[in-house]
């Protein structure tokens, strides 16, 4: 349901029944809330797309980067300090 649909809704007037002013005030409040929620949804979708794009770029830059496990069978190399 869209906010404009809520705003356009009308009710019949009865001698006994709901107060039309209260009904329309509630519908306006509901429509405003729908607008707010849809706006927040749009912001969230935009942010999610920005994050997806960033991840794609990161993946493209690092697709050929591989972690090489150190060879544990050979003795660990230690720097030769002070020897020329």
TrEMBL record:
Coiled coil: none annotated. Keywords: Cell cycle, Cell division, Coiled coil, Cytoplasm. It is found in: Cytoplasm. This is Cell wall synthesis protein Wag31. Signal peptide: none annotated. Its main location: cytoplasm. InterPro entries: DivIVA_domain (IPR019933), DivIVA_fam (IPR007793). Pfam families: DivIVA (PF05103).
């Amino acid at each position: 349901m869209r906010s404009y649909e809520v705003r356009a809704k009308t009710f019949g007037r009865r001698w006994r029944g709901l107060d039309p002013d209260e009904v329309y005030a509630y519908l306006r409040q509901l429509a405003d809330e729908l607008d707010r929620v849809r706006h927040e949804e749009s912001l969230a979708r935009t942010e999610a797309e920005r994050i997806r794009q960033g991840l794609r770029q990161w993946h493209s830059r690092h697709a050929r980067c591989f972690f090489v496990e150190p060879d544990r069978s050979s003795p660990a190399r230690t720097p030769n300090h002070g020897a020329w």
